[in-house]
């Protein structure tokens, strides 16, 4: 039976990468976001179409390694444990999108009620805005609703892990620069509210990931002068990757925490869900960028367990 993962905010920059990684791990992924379907002409839309044609794991493999699209199953790396683990769960409905307002507790609860067989939940909901009250609501209240749903006795009885994507608390290091109410104070306070809801209520079922500046290629929807839609690719890795290498080499730790590769963040989030049933690997509490790198680079015992089965 295919494991199901609920992904809030899965059409955004971070969420779309988490969706790919979850599919590669053999999950059926149900994405809940305000927009519902992914933006046209984006890699996420292409992924959705390919999932319907070749199944989740193969489509995810193609998204990570474009050359794999031209290869047959026999041409794939025989040592790829994740792909072998997921070959039997290539259902065409492995990726599903639902329109939902996560700031509404009732909508969050209804969504969870519709998927009682889900084994894990990841929240990639985040809004970076100078609107103090909106930022607190979208970054804090949403996570509070999800944590409450995880605690509800009649919702998600099989869910073993809730992973909340938070942020490195830079406002504590530079309070006069980014901690002002007119700047990003609402964003960071909202993230702290979400963290508190997870850590105080879920115990070892909850994990908070605190990435720094997240880099990769971000796709932004635009409206052209003619009224048609367009997508702009922002290569955030041009800034983030060199800084990551530099600060990791000098050991920046918290004050100068290195940027976080979106692929590392996504892999750590999915592995946290997969490892929830493994007592020796279960991760809870708070994980910073260094812990995420450690999780993403470690041998995956969940893949070995699936191979033995």
Provide structural commentary.
This protein is of the alpha/beta class. It has one domain (4-308): NAD(P)-binding Rossmann-like Domain (Rossmann fold), CATH 3.40.50.720. Helix content is 45%, strand content 17%. It is built from 13 helices and 11 strands. β1 (4-8), α1 (13-24) and β2 form a beta-alpha-beta unit. α1 packs across α3 (56-64), α1 crosses α11 (262-274) and α5 (105-113) packs parallel to α6. The longest helix is centred in the middle third of the chain and has 20 residues, at 132-151. The two termini are 12 Å apart. InterPro entries: ComplexI_NDUFA9_subunit, Epimerase_deHydtase, NAD(P)-bd_dom_sf. This is NAD-dependent epimerase/dehydratase domain-containing protein. It holds the Pfam family Epimerase.
Distance between the termini: 12 Å
Q: Characterize the overall form.
A: globular
Structural class: alpha/beta
Level of helix content? 40-55%
InterPro entries: ComplexI_NDUFA9_subunit (IPR051207), Epimerase_deHydtase (IPR001509), NAD(P)-bd_dom_sf (IPR036291)
Domain NAD-dependent epimerase/dehydratase: 6-131
GO molecular function: protein-containing complex binding
Protein name: NAD-dependent epimerase/dehydratase domain-containing protein
């Amino acid at each position: 039976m295919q494991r199901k993962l609920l992904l809030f905010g899965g059409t955004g920059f971070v969420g779309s990468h988490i969706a790919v990684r979850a599919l590669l791990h053999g999950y059926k992924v149900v994405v809940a976001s305000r927009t519902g379907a992914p933006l046209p002409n984006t890699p996420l839309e292409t992924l959705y179409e390919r999932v319907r044609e070749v199944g989740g794991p193969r489509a995810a493999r193609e998204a990570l390694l474009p050359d794999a699209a031209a290869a047959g199953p026999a041409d794939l790396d025989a040592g790829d444990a994740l792909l072998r683990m997921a070959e039997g769960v290539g259902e065409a409905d492995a990726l599903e999108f639902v329109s939902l307002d996560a700031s509404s507790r009732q909508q969050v609860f209804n969504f969870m009620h519709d998927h009682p067989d889900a084994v894990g939940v990841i929240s990639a909901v985040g809004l970076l805005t100078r609107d103090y009250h909106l930022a607190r609501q979208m970054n804090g209240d949403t996570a509070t609703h999800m944590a409450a749903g995880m605690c509800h006795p009649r919702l998600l009885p099989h869910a073993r892990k809730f992973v909340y994507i938070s942020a490195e608390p830079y406002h504590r290091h530079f309070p006069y620069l980014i901690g002002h109410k007119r700047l990003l104070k609402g964003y960071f306070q909202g993230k702290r509210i979400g963290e508190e809801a997870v850590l105080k209520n879920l115990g070892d079922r909850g994990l908070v990931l605190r990435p720094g500046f997240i880099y990769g290629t971000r796709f932004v929807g635009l409206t052209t002068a003619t009224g048609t839609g367009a997508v702009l690719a922002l290569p955030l890795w041009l800034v983030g990757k060199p800084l990551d290498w530099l600060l990791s080499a000098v050991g920046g730790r918290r004050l100068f925490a290195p940027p976080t590769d979106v692929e590392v963040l996504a892999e750590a989030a999915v592995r946290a869900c997969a490892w929830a049933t493994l007592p020796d690997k279960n991760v809870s509490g708070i994980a910073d960028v260094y812990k995420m790198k450690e999780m993403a680079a470690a041998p995956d015992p969940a893949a070995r367990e699936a191979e033995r089965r």
